[in-house]
Amino acid sequence: MPFPKEGKEWPPEDYRSWYNKIIEWSTWYSGEPQQLLNLYSSQQFFPDTEWGRFWARIESEERANAVHLPAAGDVASTSAHLLFSEAPNFLYDLKAPGGDRIETFIKENGLLNILLEAAEMAAAMSGVFLKLDIEPELVKIPILSIITPLQAIPYFWRGRLWEVLFFRIVKEGFGGETIWRLFELRSRENDALSIQYKLYKGSRDRVGREVDMRSIDETADLGLEDVRYNMPGLGCVYIPNMRPNRVLPGSSLGMSDFSGGVITLMDSLDFAWSSWMRDIELGMAQIIVDEELLERPEGGLITQDTPSARARFNKFQRAFIKLSMTPWRIGGEGGIKPIEQVQFDIRVDEHLKTCESLYFQIVSQCGYSPQTFGVVEYGRQTDSGTALRIRERKSLLTREKKSRYWQPALWDLLWQMQLLDVVSGLSPSYTPQEVDVELQDSVITDEREQSETLRNLDQARAISTYQKVKLLHPDWDEEDVEAEVKRILDDQGAGPMPFFEEKEEEVPDVVVRSGLL
User: Fold this and answer.
1) pLDDT of amino acid 253
2) Cα gap 384→382, rounded to integer Å
């Protein structure tokens, strides 16, 4: 994958449809109504076939009343919590050469927080990149950063990430007509990592022409120079959210949680939610009052000589003013009252059931159970223990599926980190070691369920005291477990038996048979 050719459209034509899809997913993920309005009002991204959406049909005067329920952000956040709310275990030899570098890398980069953030972005935008960079003046360890699919164009070969072009806007001219983009191409050349940089000056939809890095202040002081490291890999990894890719079958790119018609459901949810809020607005109690009963702003009663031309319609005032009721009364129209109350019904139950049904469908289509989101259906009590696990099985299966993409990627990331650490000269030479990653289940253990399990195993004589303590306290080290086992046995009087000298029993000469001597 070479750098883009000067003057070509951006993003590239063969990648534009997928790029626009990621823009749509990321806009829903943002949870900002204005971004949704701007997105679906732009013919650049969506043709007329997409204008059936609620956010595309809103007229300018109705936009202030549109309400957005950020279900997309809730789904992405929950996905990340299922994966990394509990810190994963990194299994490596700390005492081996380079072990301290792995520990420093995890701490210095805040790896646990980065994983939580990256998992949330991956759920929303189909995947995420984790990139390693060298900046000795900043920190003496490879720096880890998150790159979204909106800032990268990858190239895969045999299902493996072979090359990747990173890009970002570093400067915008007045009005956004001129844009400077910084490109970073990472490729493999003869089993070595090649990193090249270029700066382009173009427009919103054109890449423009290459310019010198020192032409703008934003890149002049970065000190970016082409570099080559004698190591395999790209110094980055790509983690797909989930596959297969139903939009591009056979592609190595991941799929967003919002694919497969979920956006249509979220759009309908916003429509129902906005309709509910509109009902509340229309249901505000109002009073229609004859103008002759009101006072002028300066004081005194309004008469025919003092018209109320300055009266304005304000939906938040406590009384609506119907001007000039006199003609209706003179004409003999019946039913005209000088003061009349008006209040429309608010359809609470209808809207509530509609919104809940849509939310259930959104969560289910994304691969989760509504119970995971704290949503309980009508007539059902909150479950716990085994019942809760059964109802959350769909969420746990989705978490397990996603974790299988994260584990090999993190193994590769930590391996490349060690290689880059050595070849860049940040650390003295050492032999990299494999780091296995164990993800936690992120499910809170029910104490009652656990105690019942231990009791059943104990009654069946199928578990030792040692294993019971291990199950109850999985975070304890071996010394604490053994000390607790000893205390339990001592309290039960089942400790080591005291030593007694054995004595031979004396056999009596007289034997008792049938009670007779």
Assistant:
1) 96
2) 7
**Count of C-beta atoms within a 10 Å radius of residue 154:** 21
CB 208 within 8 A of CB 202: yes
pLDDT, position 388: 56
For the segment 273-302, the average pLDDT, to the nearest whole number, is 64
Rounded distance between C-alpha atoms, residue 218 and residue 208, angstroms: 18
pLDDT > 90: percent of the chain = 48
HSE-CB of 94 using CA atoms within 13 angstroms:
6
In this predicted model, what pLDDT tens digit does every residue of 215-250 receive, in sequence order?
999 999 888 999 999 999 999 999 999 999 998 999
- Strand ranges, E, within 335-466: 339-342, 436-438
Task: Find the mean pLDDT for residues 427-447.
Answer: 81
The answer to whether 182 and 199 are in contact (CB under 8 A) is yes
- 200: part of which helix (H) or strand (E)? strand 193-202
**pLDDT for the residue 206:** 92
* Alpha carbons 257 and 401: distance in angstroms, whole number: 13
- Specify whether the CB–CB gap between 53 and 40 falls below 8 A: yes
- Whether 497 shows a pLDDT value over 60: the answer reads no
Q: Give the length of the chain.
A: 517
At 53, which amino acid appears?
R
Q: Which residues of 455-491 are buried (b: 16+ CB within 10 A; e: fewer)?
A: eeeeeeeebebeebbbeeeeeeeeeebeebbeeeeee
Centre a 10 Å sphere on the Cβ of residue 229 and count the other Cβ atoms it contains: 17
Phi, psi of 418 (to 5 degrees): -65, -40
What six digits make up the tokens of 196? 């090249």
- Return the structure tokens found at 37: 């309005």
DSSP letter string, 28-73: HHHT-HHHHHHHHT-TTT--GGGTTSHHHH--GGGGGG-----HHH
Residue 373: which residues within 8 A CB-CB, separation 6 or more? 74, 78, 363
pLDDT of residue 377: 57
